[in-house]
């Protein structure tokens, strides 16, 4: 694949995934209302938490491990171990919480099914991200929300939803179908790898040990990041109710859509760094991606700030009138994180997961202030302040770490016109 199609495919699929997520938000808001939007946000947060716990077993580090030892026998063992963890960990968590009388969600079977299938899909996404066809991993990110939109729209158009909870059944079906459709892509990737392992056959014990060692540090960072992004939902549910969760989570979802362009560049960066290491082209590539990320993030934030509030209420309903104000209030933090997702991808590509963990812990300290002090006292306003502070602190820490490791001069982070051309090395 030539350079422009590869980079263009990644950007198009990331953008398409954002559109699908936006459609899910709009459709569920119009079909079910603001309170059920809060219920969906909490269900999704619990699913993400379970998938994050699975990541401690190493699935999140697959992109790094599979790229460093790219051969068929080793990947077979990686997949076998990762599949087992993706099934067993959510099962133990859901059943264990039910046995002690504190179920994770009122819809435990749906929660378990979605968590397992999304964990399995994440395994495939990470494996494909380690290869040359990076667009395929981004395609899987697009596929799941696309199937949710398609299947939910089909139900609404034919028989309608007889209860709100039927939406979760659709979610289960879409997640399962997305995983099944991802299988041929992974099979193709595996068949393209060398049939022999130059280092000799690895035992399953060695594979599991490596996954656990790398996965713990890598996923600790993602778990802390999850707490930074989603703990406010649970605080608001406790102190303000589901309606507040629905409003705030909708604003957060809209704000996070603005990260899609920067995250597309981060996916290219992770793939390039994981396979290129510290060769002479990696440093200029990473710095260029950083400059592009801040450009595109500022651009989309400006567009979002100019969108009339009436457009949002026309799409979502009058109950969502405060969403525009909340979203605009989050933009300073969105810009900061949009700039520094490249530094996070750089760390992951080099296996420097501890650096990402430290940055997210800095942000978590401010999130904790919001959870225990600001939200109980100020509600949504306190959550907005806490999330912005967390974003800014995390982003600054990541940027400073990248600058120290690569000896970056301030002028190298200033965007320039030449950055707008298609990135060299994105197709590698």
Defining key terms:
globular, 16 helices, mainly alpha, single chain, 80% helix, 428 residues, 0% strand
Commentary on this structure:
The protein has 428 residues and is mainly α. It has one domain (3-420). The protein is 80% helix and 0% strand. It contains 16 helices and no strands. Helix 10 packs antiparallel against helix 11, helix 11 (282-306) runs antiparallel to helix 14 and helix 15 runs antiparallel to helix 16. The protein is globular and about 60 Å long. The model has no long low-confidence stretch (mean pLDDT 87).
Structural class: mainly alpha
Give the biggest sheet.
none
Q: Tell me the domain tally.
A: 1
Integer average pLDDT: 87
Low-confidence stretches: none
H/E order of the elements? HHHHHHHHHHHHHHHH
Rg calculated over all Cα atoms: 21 Å
Briefly characterize the structure:
This protein is mostly helical.
Write the layout of secondary structure elements.
Elements: H1 3-32, H2 34-55, H3 62-68, H4 72-99, H5 108-129, H6 134-158, H7 166-191, H8 204-239, H9 242-257, H10 260-276, H11 282-306, H12 309-316, H13 323-329, H14 331-349, H15 353-378, H16 380-406
Helix pairs in contact: 1-2, 1-6, 1-9, 1-10, 2-4, 2-5, 2-8, 2-9, 3-5, 4-5, 4-8, 5-6, 5-7, 6-7, 8-9, 8-15, 8-16, 9-13, 10-11, 10-14, 11-14, 14-16, 15-16
